[in-house]
């Protein structure tokens, strides 16, 4: 069974409920601005699940409530092995919605990096898998808009560990991703255009996020953000990878790779020692 949980949250002390709907709560997994996530036991599935509950202070905001439910609907519709899976949704007695997700036993990339950098080969493999997950979204014309180490999860299974993309709370269909009225994303990972209320935000914003994740995974300790990407990387990183990350994190969207799949192909060529795939401009 796939075990996943949206993990872009920080643990905060609070009273643990005994049950949420039909699920017996075991402990808090984390709490953020918009939601709290609990580890619970599902008798019907005979397995642990993660129950994500809308935060009480947002319970009367219909826009936030709809965004919360949109995330669950989107993940349910996409239903891909590289993304969070949703078992169902429900509502608390006070009217707050909750989503029942599978639980990620391997934790998040943020957890891993807190213990030190990954070996270069492993870091490249993880970045490749992240790009593959984001490419699933892009093929469905969805842009994530908040790619961070907290939103990259690990699932251990019989075939080894798998990387998954979590927390689509800020995701948007491309048809409605321009003309946004609110700043959305995590500083340090979001593309410059996400700071502009009327900017067009498309798949190239996620490419920027992938590039920043690459610098986090492969960068040397103490590098300065103003340095070229190639000079920020650790020893042992193939030379062409720096050029790929430089293109991915270009300030102008037109100068980046057009989507996650193009980024992934460029990364693979560079990691194998070949020339980095030249970006493809598009209107």
Can you offer a commentary on this structure?
- The chain has 2 domains: 19-102, Phosphorylase Kinase, domain 1; 109-271, Transferase(Phosphotransferase) domain 1 (Transferase(Phosphotransferase), domain 1, Orthogonal Bundle), CATH 1.10.510.10.
- 30% of the residues lie in helices and 19% in strands.
- It has helices spanning 62-78, 109-114, 120-139, 203-218, 229-232, 239-248, 260-271, and strands at residues 19-20, 23-31, 35-42, 47-54, 86-91, 97-102, 142-143, 152-157, 160-165, 172-173.
- It has a 6-stranded antiparallel sheet, covered by helices on one side.
- A hairpin with a 4-residue loop joins β3 (35-42) and β4.
- The model is unreliable at 1-13, 177-182 and 277-283 (pLDDT under 50).
Short description:
The chain is built from seven helices and ten strands. The protein is an alpha+beta fold.
What would the keywords be for this entry?
283 residues; alpha+beta; Phosphorylase Kinase, domain 1; Transferase(Phosphotransferase), domain 1; 2 domains; six-stranded antiparallel beta sheet; globular; disordered C terminus
